[in-house]
Design a protein that fits this description.
304 residues; alpha/beta; Rossmann fold; 10 strands; 39% helix
Length: 304
């Protein structure tokens, strides 16, 4: 069950643009074991050039409302004039939802980036957890939790376990959960020598010994992080197994998703200010762009 940390009924903001990805988001919400008091607000934003389609958009929202209400959920609708990413973030800031849910757009065949950038902008700038759902949705059976020990990673763990400042994301029964920590890439010998032993032969025995010791320590710490995370998940009734690859974080995560059945990635990202913008959250951005599956991004607010 998903509980709001502040004692009020759980609130979910569903950005519904009528696309196949938005419909997948609705289907995913139907599968979650949400408490009956949970409130979903289905929000549709239309631009000034779409004003003549107001009635069509409201009818689509009413259909979404009826679909979710048939699952016993409390559902309200909002139809706002403006630009989607801006209005979604503005509405979220005003109403402080426990979770924003929206669909991913289609991909450009050449560049592989999200069309329209709405999901990208919401993930980058919203202060609240964001679930980006990608069609086709075929159920929520395989979940990959990414951890690195940072506060943002801990927020991702808390999203599945619950916490004082974070609502718990409810997983359906029988979900197969994997915990991944990516070890740093092995540095080229010259890089290692410059940092640790300037002037020595990179293939000398002291250098090789030091490099192997460093790699072993990274593996020990990474394994310990995974074990601690699995223990925490188990305390909440969630069984999980660990995955410990080495390399570039985003590359290794995406490669794992492409090689294994993964329906949802859960990862952390710091909240972004308008000034910092693209300097933060690069791994989560790549996961949303290139993983090919749904992604839940937990947030830690950035300093103002």
């Amino acid at each position: 069950m998903m509980d709001s940390p502040n004692g009020r009924p759980l609130e979910i903001l569903l950005a519904d643009d009528g696309s196949e990805h938005a419909k997948a988001a609705v289907a995913l919400l139907e599968d979650l074991p949400l408490p009956p008091e949970a409130k979903v607000t289905a929000l549709r934003v239309f631009t000034p050039t779409q004003s003549s389609e107001h009635a069509i958009f409201q009818a689509a929202l009413d259909q979404t409302q009826a679909q979710l209400q048939s699952k016993g959920l409390q559902v309200a609708t909002e139809l706002l004039l403006g630009y989607p990413a801006e209005k979604i973030i503005e509405y979220a800031d005003a109403h402080r939802p426990d979770l924003i849910v929206l669909g991913a757009k289609g991909l450009r065949a050449t560049f592989g980036i999200l069309l329209g950038g709405v999901a990208q902008q919401v993930v980058e700038y919203a202060q609240w957890p964001v679930l980006v759902v990608r069609a086709p949705y075929q159920g929520l059976r395989h979940v990959l939790l990414v951890v690195d020990g940072s506060p943002y990673s801990k927020a991702a763990v808390n999203t599945l376990c619950g916490g004082e400042q974070c609502a718990r994301f409810p997983l359906p029964k029988g979900v197969e959960l994997h915990v991944m920590h990516v070890l740093p890439p092995i540095l080229p010998p010259v890089t290692f020598v410059d940092a640790r032993f300037p002037g020595l032969d990179p293939l000398s025995e002291p250098i090789i010994t030091a490099r192997l010791a460093q790699q072993a320590e990274e593996e020990r710490q990474g394994g310990e992080l995974i074990e601690q995370t699995i223990a925490l998940l188990q305390s909440q009734g969630l069984e999980a197994t660990g995955v410990l690859p080495r390399g570039d974080a985003a590359t290794e995560i995406i490669a794992y998703v492409h090689a294994n059945p993964v329906d949802l990635i859960v990862a952390g990202s710091r909240g972004l200010s308008q000034v910092r913008g693209w300097l933060m959250g690069s791994v989560s951005r790549k996961l949303i762009h290139y993983s090919g599956c749904s992604v839940l991004i937990a947030k830690v607010a950035a300093p103002s």
